[in-house]
Amino acid sequence: MAPQGKLDLDPEVVRTARRLAARAAEPIIGMARSHTTVSVERALLRLAGLTGADDEGRPWANHLADAVRDQVGLEHGLALPVWDALLTGPHATLGDLAQAAARGRVAFRLPSGTDADHARK
Question: Which Pfam families did the record assign (predicted)?
């Protein structure tokens, strides 16, 4: 097929390169999906907008990550249980949820089916 596009590349060569790149990345992506750390999960909460700390200076992200880890573990990440709790509970914001979790007033779960789909949106 004749080269196309701004770079004048053969589309078949581009498809082959993309396929090979995806194949080369598979082991790394698989490892990243199955390994996380508390630091990574806390960073996710901060990126989602969770800021501040309690009166003793302990960040709300630490409280929330620890509560999720203690109840459902972190091997699946904490986004799904946290977003599920926001959708199904009375907490209007991530900050409210973190404060309630620090007081032991949140029951986290690892949702499945349509509940998981809703939490992912």
Answer: Lys-AminoMut_A
